[in-house]
From TrEMBL:
Classification via InterPro entries: AAA+_ATPase, ABC_transporter-like_ATP-bd, ABC_Transporter_VariousFunc, P-loop_NTPase
UniProt keywords, alphabetically: ATP-binding, Nucleotide-binding, Transport
GO-annotated molecular function: ATP binding; ATP hydrolysis activity
SMART domains on file: AAA
Protein name according to UniProt: ABC transporter related protein
Listed PANTHER family: ABC TRANSPORTER ATP-BINDING PROTEIN ALBC-RELATED (PTHR42939)
Record bears the keyword Ligase: no
Pfam families for the chain: ABC_tran
ABC transporter domain span: 21-255
Origin superkingdom: Bacteria
Gene3D superfamilies, sorted: P-loop containing nucleotide triphosphate hydrolases
């Protein structure tokens, strides 16, 4: 069997205080028993996620999203490159005390109720009993499980399980929150409440990295996004910038005659119309996502445009 080489140290300057997550040429190759390359899950990923932003990680199944999150948590070792969290190597386990994590499937003890679950995780962080009780009451209220706080988790629906999973991820008042499919299993009302909660967490100064297949949810809450495909970064930037169609201009006006409707800005003023707006139309995030994936399949070597 071959042994895995330690990732090379970067000569770049250390991450600044406002950058919570930084990856530098981060790559991960899964190998078989004989050490032969089986899957290249991630290829030379360069990312910066800043304090107080909601960052969306998007991509089809197998694009490297879950691998990226596991590398950031230190659950996997990189084949090459670096993953830095709070300026520390991601493999430094002490940094996880400042992180909250909601996995795609919450692994909770089904025989415990909501209060017992949160108390248990509070104990793992050595929280005093009084603090655990205060945090438990606050979080059960925040995620809307007041009426089910005494019920065993085995009786919970998928949506209720997501809620208690989020409460568990917040028990330690984390500075960084990693959310994998946070709205999975929620009804429309629960989805809206989850998105509102994510926005409130950002307003409190939290940094949030969320991975999701539900593109409208990402479009609603994320400040910036990265789109991955086959382990490569294909697009990166602010949501509003990426969705704007720069080479098309749309004009909205009222009070124009039929003859004036075909005219442009100067003619609107000439005919006494009122210009309501002139800007660029936007795509939906779904349209952007599908365009990038199709282009990536047609031109595998294409890299991200590098938007900020």
């Amino acid at each position: 069997m071959s042994t895995q080489t330690a990732p090379a140290k970067s000569t770049r300057p250390p991450v600044s205080n406002d950058v919570v997550i930084e990856t530098r040429g981060l790559s991960k190759v899964y190998r078989d028993f004989w050490g032969r390359q089986k899957v290249r899950a991630l290829k030379a990923l360069d990312l910066e996620i800043k304090k107080g932003e909601i960052f969306g990680l998007l991509g089809p199944n197998g694009s490297g999203k879950s691998t990226t999150i596991k590398l950031l948590l230190g659950l996997l070792f990189p084949t090459s490159g670096q993953a830095l969290v709070f300026g520390q190597e991601a493999t430094e386990v002490t940094k996880n005390e400042r992180i909250g994590y909601l996995p795609e499937e919450s692994y909770l003890y089904k025989f415990l109720n909501a209060e017992e679950t949160l108390d248990f995780y509070g104990r793992l962080f050595d929280m005093p009993a009084a603090v655990r009780k205060e945090r438990t009451d606050e979080l059960i209220q925040r995620v809307g499980l007041q009426g089910a706080r005494k019920r065993q988790l085995r009786e919970y629906s998928k949506g209720m399980t997501r809620r208690i999973g989020l409460a568990q991820a917040l028990i330690n008042e984390p500075e960084l929150i990693l959310l994998d499919e946070p709205t999975s299993g929620l009804d429309p009302i629960g989805t809206r409440e989850m998105k509102d909660l994510i926005l409130k967490l950002r307003d409190q100064g939290k940094t949030i990295l969320m991975s999701s297949h539900l593109l409208p949810d990402v479009q609603d809450v994320c400040d910036r996004i990265a789109i991955l495909h086959q382990g490569e970064l294909k697009e990166l930037g602010r949501v509003d910038t990426l969705l704007t169609v720069q080479d098309v201009t749309q004009v909205r006006a009222k009070g124009l005659s039929a003859a004036a409707e075909a005219e442009i800005r100067a003619v609107i003023e000439k005919h006494g119309g009122e210009l309501l707006g002139m800007d660029h139309p936007t795509l939906s995030l779904e349209e952007l996502f599908l365009n990038i994936v199709r282009d990536s399949e047609a031109r595998p070597g294409r890299r991200a445009s590098g938007g900020k």
